[in-house]
Amino acid sequence: MNPVLEAIAKRRSVRSYDSKPVPRAIIQTIIQAGNEAPSSINTQPWRFVVVEDKKVHQRLLETALPNAKAFFRSIQETDPLKYASIMRRFEEVEDPIYYSAPVILFVIGRGVYADHSCPLACQNIMLAAYALGLGSCWVGLGSMVTADAGVRKILELEDDEKIFGPILLGYPKVYPDPPDKKAPTVKWI
Questions:
Q1: What are the boundaries of each domain within the chain?
Q2: Other CB atoms closer than 10 Å to residue 69's CB: what's the count?
Q3: Which of 18, 103, 157, 179 could be cross-linked to 171 through a Cys-Cys bond (beta carbons 3.0 to 4.6 Å apart)?
Q4: What is the pLDDT of residues 59-68, one digit of tens each?
């Protein structure tokens, strides 16, 4: 199989990581892959923040977790079983937001083209991680840190910037099986 198509088909969201650090050269290669993504009118509206520090990781978790719990309260009435399952997971897992990954990679974008372009950089990052033997996971709940002034300062997050991802990186303890995929809906004209 073509290696690009194989990476697309086999990459999975990893939520269980070995504590082994990821060499900076590998992280830089992954960031470069993100930087090679296409962007609207070549604006390249992204920048990257790599979090390896355990204290910063803990601060991010302590900031994001209450926000994530509040986010899911909206389904408490409409889907109580799903809500209970999510809350149970939050209690059972030591780090239910960043999954104790050794690297949290924030893709931060600004400008009118960021919403179209930054997700492309994120996808390149995850495919590059797979190609280099790492696991990755885009954790939208991990971006729920922007109300904390201290975290904004750590990330050097400006008012006109938005977090995409963040993306977790690390060596997988367990690589998940592929989920069932629905057949694509296609209309040929």
A1: 3-170
A2: 15
A3: 18
A4: 999 999 999 9
Confidence class for position 135, pLDDT limits 50, 70, 90 = very high
Name the β-bridge partners of 167: 105, 138
Average pLDDT across the chain, whole number? 96
Task: Please tell me the pTM assigned to this model.
Answer: 0.94
37-65 pLDDT tens trace: 999 999 999 999 999 999 999 999 999 99
Domain spanning 3-170: which superfamily? NADH Oxidase (3.40.109.10)
Q: What gap in Å lies between CA 29 and CA 74, rounded to an integer? A: 39
Three-state SS sequence of the chain: CCHHHHHHHHCCECCCECCCCCCHHHHHHHHHHHHCCCCHHHCCCEEEEEECCHHHHHHHHHHHHHHHHHHHHHHCCCCHHHHHHHHHHHHHCCCCCCCCCCEEEEEEEECCCHHHHHHHHHHHHHHHHHHCCCEEEECHHHHCCCCCHHHHHHHCCCCCEEEEEEEEEECECCCCCCCCCCCCCCCCC
